[in-house]
Amino acid sequence: MFQGASTMDSVVEFYKAWQPDLNTLYMCLPEILLGVLALLALVFDVVCKSCAAKRAARGFISAALVAMFICAIGGAFPSPSLEAIMAPGLFFSFGKISIWLVLFIACAFLAINLSGIVRSREGNAEISAPATTHLILIATAAASLLLKATNFVAFFVLLETLTVCLYALVGSNRNSVYSLEAGVKYLIAGGISGGLMLFGIVLLYGGAAMSGAPVLTSEPLSYGTVFVFLTQNPESLLGLAGAGLVLAGVMFKLGVFPMQFWIPDVYQGAPSHVTFFLATFSKATGFFLVLPMLATFSPIWGKLLPVLLACALVSMVYANVTALGMRNVKRLLGLSGVSHAAYLMVGVLGAWQVASSGNAEMAALCVTLVIAYIVVYILTIYPIFSVMSRMPQTNDALQNFDDYEGLSKNNPLLAGTLAFGLGSLAGIPPTVGFIAKLGILFVLFQAGFYGTIAVMLGCVVVSIYYYFGWFRAAFTGGENAPAKTYLPVGLCSRVVLIAFSALMVLASLGYWCVIRGI
Questions:
Q1: Would you say the C-alpha torsion 319, 320, 325, 328 has a positive or negative sign?
Q2: Ordered DSSP codes for 460-482
Q3: Burial letters for 181-191: b for 16+ Cβ neighbours within 10 Å, e otherwise?
Q4: How far apart are CA 506 and CA 510, in angstroms?
Q5: Strand partners, 79
Q6: Residue 354 contacts residue 446 (beta carbons within 8 Å)
Q7: How far is residue 87's CA from residue 364's CA, in Å, rounded to a whole number?
């Protein structure tokens, strides 16, 4: 009888720890707003019958996202500070600017607007606009809430919520066998990744319980419990295996070895706006997930570093060598994304190595430079996908270099935009991609990863070859080819493409001033 009462008291205490209060709801305000917008997207689809009403509804959601973006930049939403993320055991002390929220909303807004271009092409009519908007917003809310989680139960549930939305988005074009195939492959890969991660979480909590590690009464399943367990038992095989499996699941989001195998097939088959969302949003989510995970596993940092660094270097070399013979542009961007995820990963590891040496100020600067790399990648990749979405090839899964022959002659604006984007991806001056790569190299230098610097420089040189192959196709040939019909570029779209191209050069000046001031 006494034992049953004790068990019931434990259950009551557990639910009390999870009971939300007003402060918790306030912390979740942006996610609540994103959830409301996601529901409104479906409501508008039912209520709005005319085309004008549907356009007004889409405009309302876009305006709401812009307003949230401005509020996030202005510090209206709570956010964990950079110092709290970097300090082991102190995961989320809230500051003024939600860095990840700004990036997530930007990715969602650009993907939703890009989906309008993709749907206007022949063969993409089956892609539902409200469903696409709904899934993108739910995924954005789940990812943002995921970064506020302080225990692995919420971590796993929210990560799977995000992943399920991406499953549906990848296979959303029912008229394309490539999209359906990509959806199945992504489902299988994601299921394997989720299973490994869940097994790792079980090992961590099981190891903590068996070791008798002190449990935080306010939240018994928190990251802090695992942190204490690993601090007291740094040689525990359960702890090492659990941490490795959890990080493998995070690597799936980043697209880093050994979880990069799904990327070329899924990127090729998914609709272009979904590929863009995967390329940007998934990388940003993976990066911001790595920081609290490294904080949680910091007691075994010395054992994790060689393994994680090796995975990043393998990804870097694999992606760039494999891309050399690639002519399908979406598969090429997929492999390019793997290499950029590897650059991002070595930057994170370098920043954490600097932090572990006790130089908190330099560590904060290094993390800022890595975050800037993500921003530059988003800035660079959107114009490329905007050009891809306007190409005459009706099935974007089959786009290759031949489809871009004569682009400079037929549409100089699209060709110029593509040239700036490819130049920035390759890291060619004076584009901002060049300065961003210098920032990563600076981080690696501060961490003492000199061998990694040599490998990264070699991979950057190799990448110029396959980017130049795409560039050469767009600016040569096509003299005897019939005229191609591209999707029209409206006035607003022209302004946006020119602005992005200008930013890729002007932003490098600001970035260079920051580097000079270091």
A1: positive
A2: HHHHHHHHHHHHHHHHS--SSSP
A3: bbbebbbebbe
A4: 7
A5: 95
A6: yes
A7: 10
CB 249 within 8 A of CB 159: yes
Exposed/middle/buried for residue 51 (C-beta within 10 Å: 0-12, 13-18, 19+): exposed
For residue 23, how many other CB atoms are within 10 A of its CB? 9
320-326 contacts, C-beta under 8 A, 24 or more apart: 320/459, 320/462, 320/463, 320/466, 321/462, 323/463, 323/466, 324/462, 324/465, 324/466, 326/466
Q: How far is CA 199 from CA 20, 107, 150, 242, 245, in A?
A: 28, 31, 18, 7, 7
Give CA separation, 349 vs 332, 352, 455, in Å: 26, 5, 15
Among 189, 241, 232, residue whose Cα is nearest residue 208: 232
User: What is the pTM assigned to this prediction?
Assistant: 0.88
- Give 107-129 pLDDT, tens digit per residue: 999 999 888 877 776 555 556 67
How confident is the model over 354-413, as pLDDT tens digits? 888 877 778 888 888 888 899 999 999 999 999 888 887 667 888 888 888 888 888 888
The two three-digit tokens of residue 448, written as one number = 């003492």
DSSP codes joined into one string, 75-137: T-S-EE-HHHHHSTT----EES--HHHHHHHHHHHHHHHHHHHHHTSTT-TTS-HHHHHHHHH
> Rounded to whole angstroms, how far apart are CA atoms 68 and 30?
8
3-class SS of residue 374: helix
Alpha helix locations (H) across 328-359? Answer: 329-356
Return the structure tokens found at 2. Answer: 């006494």
Q: Which residues contact 451 (CB under 8 A, 6 or more apart)?
A: none
What distance in Å separates the CA atoms of residue 33 and residue 372, rounded to the nearest whole number?
26
Distance of alpha carbon 213 from alpha carbon 222, whole angstroms:
12
Which amino acid appears at position 189 of this protein? Answer: A
| 142 within 8 A of 161, measured Cβ to Cβ | yes
**CA max distance for the chain:** 89
What distance, in Å, lies between the first and last C-alpha atoms of the chain? 66
Q: Cα–Cα distance between 403 and 391 in angstroms, integer?
A: 8
**What is the rounded distance in angstroms from the CA atom of residue 154 to the CA atom of residue 107?**
23
Domain coordinates in residue numbering, the chain: 303-518
* Residue 12 CA: distances (Å) to CA of 18, 163, 356: 10, 31, 39
